[in-house]
Automatic annotation (TrEMBL):
PROSITE patterns: ACT, HOMOSER_DHGENASE. GO terms for molecular function: homoserine dehydrogenase activity; NADP binding. This is Homoserine dehydrogenase. It comes from Neoasaia chiangmaiensis. Keywords: Amino-acid biosynthesis, Methionine biosynthesis, NADP, Oxidoreductase, Threonine biosynthesis. L-homoserine binds at residue 197. GO terms for biological process: methionine biosynthetic process; threonine biosynthetic process. The active site is at residue 212. It is an enzyme of class 1 (oxidoreductase). It comes from the Bacteria. NADPH binds at residue 112.
Length: 436
């Protein structure tokens, strides 16, 4: 088939017919005329694959070739572009993408784990074969984060990228803040509402957001980031008392990612819950919303907020990539010719102001012991607060400490010293204070 332009249709093969795959089919059908006009040619789905052929997916699959083995889409010569919408850094998704790229077939994917862990390798395959690999949907769903960093800011020297990159965590932290409820309780609600997976660890332990941060950092700094050096903390340790202290001290708690240039060939990158000043724009990105933050030497600071997940927003990003391919626009994976991976600074090299929450047995001398641990590590205190209403029947009570600027190495040594004290219960919680 060819369109009014006389150009042949771009033929798609879709692997994965879940939330995103079905969303793409629906978007391509519902918005076909506008998409054809923008792409300059028709876009046609010709083949699909998923695990269960018999499942009713609420979309009409009549006339589409079905592949039981998704990896076979890579060798289907009736396809111009493979859409990998299965997920996972290994297994069928990886095999399919590698195989399609090495045959010179263009690939569009929403798979952040695959890009974060194997992006350098995939970029090499794509470069050798001349295939394009596009992944707009892999970061922050419907927000055009990749286009912002790789194209919109292509002329700039980016100093920092990051943001709130996981809607599940942002929903949980926002609900904990607004209701005073505990993490486990709100997580169960998020699962019931379909925001969090039955196994929520990829989201709540910070990995999903860290994958997205690694991709943004790779684009911002023009070379893939060695993912195993990225410092990742999730939100499981946040308690209702931490939300209380945040409010009292003038902050909000956000799972925040930052990758920052620290030298010509050096970056720091971390994904962790942080205190952010309550008046900062990012403090008001709430619920399931995501925000992408950039800071350029020329463009200055920027924040874009939007929906980071769901069928519609994610499909919009996937199809935008398809339109680019239909127009003949495709850039190198990391925006420049492939380079070696860049390492992140170790955690001990990080620094800043910190919030430290300690559960203590409330008796004379406890604060003196804590002050001694801070003194011994050379850490200066800015504020101290006790949450008396949260006193447990056994006499334990949460204490919050806010430090002046110090090193993370010093805070790690403070925590070790505190854990050795008989008057300290459990593991203290350390959160970075980030002024974004
Ligand atoms: N959901 C979202 O909001 C977002 C998702 N993404 C990413 O998009 C991708 C897809 O996510 P999502 O749609 O939510 O996932 P789903 O779990 O909803 O769907 C996954 C699909 O992949 C199919 N599948 C699984 N294993 C295989 C296999 N071995 N061979 C063929 N098909 C297989 C499943 O088949 P079957 O249906 O038969 O079981 C299912 O149709 C992931 O990389 C995800 O991280 C990115 C941004 C947002
Ligand atoms: N699970 C992710 C969406 C997929 O990227 C989130 O909660 O933001």
């Amino acid at each position: 088939m060819s369109g009014a332009s006389g150009k042949p249709a771009l033929r798609l093969g879709i692997a994965g017919l879940g939330t995103v795959g079905v969303g793409v089919l629906q978007l391509l059908r519902d918005n076909a005329a506008a998409i054809t006009a923008r792409a300059g040619r028709p876009i046609e789905v010709v083949a699909v694959s998923a695990r269960d052929r018999t499942r009713d997916r609420g979309v009409d699959l009549a006339g589409l070739r079905w592949h039981d083995d998704a990896a076979a889409l890579a060798g289907d010569d009736g396809i111009d572009v493979v859409l990998e919408l299965i997920g996972g850094a290994e297994g069928t998704a990886r095999t399919l993408v590698e195989s399609a790229l090495s045959r010179g077939r263009d690939v569009v994917t929403a798979n952040k784990a695959l890009l974060a862990l194997h992006g350098a390798h995939l970029a090499r395959i794509a470069r050798e074969s001349g295939a394009a690999l596009l992944f707009e949907a892999s970061v922050a769903g419907g927000i055009p984060a990749i286009k912002l960093v790789r194209e919109g800011l292509a002329a700039d020297r980016l100093l920092r990228v990051g943001g709130i990159l996981n809607g599940t965590c942002n929903y949980i932290l926002t609900t904990m803040r607004d209701t005073g409820r505990d993490f486990d309780d709100v997580l169960s609600e998020a699962q019931a509402l379909g925001y969090a997976e039955a196994d929520p660890s990829t989201d709540v332990d910070g990995w999903d957001a860290a994958h997205k941060l690694a991709i943004l950092a790779g684009l911002a700094f023009g070379q893939p980031v060695a993912f195993d050096g990225l410092h990742v903390d999730g939100i499981r340790a946040i308690q209702a008392c931490d939300q209380h202290f945040a409010r009292e001290l003038g902050y909000r708690i956000k799972l925040l990612g930052t990758a920052r240039r620290t030298g010509d060939d050096a970056i720091e990158a971390w994904m962790r819950p942080c205190f952010v000043p309550k008046n900062a724009p990012i403090a008001h990105v709430d619920g399931v919303f995501n925000a992408v933050v950039t800071e350029g030497a020329f463009s200055g600071p920027m924040l874009i907020e939007g929906r980071g997940a769901g069928a519609g927003p994610t499909a919009s990003a996937v199809v935008a990539d398809v339109i680019d391919l239909a127009r003949g626009t495709a850039l190198p994976v990391w925006g420049v010719a492939p380079k070696a991976e860049i390492a992140c600074a170790p955690r001990s090299a990080l620094g800043g102001e910190y919030y430290l929450r300690v559960i203590v047995r409330d008796r004379p001398g406890v604060v003196a012991d804590i002050a001694a641990a801070l003194r011994d590590a050379g850490v200066s205190l800015r504020a101290l607060s006790q949450h008396d209403a949260a006193r447990e029947p056994g006499g334990t009570v949460p204490l919050a400490l806010v430090t002046h600027h110090t090193t993370e190495a010093a805070m790690i040594s403070v925590i070790s010293a505190l854990e050795a004290l008989e008057s300290v219960v459990g593991t203290p919680l350390l959160l970075k204070i980030e002024t974004v």
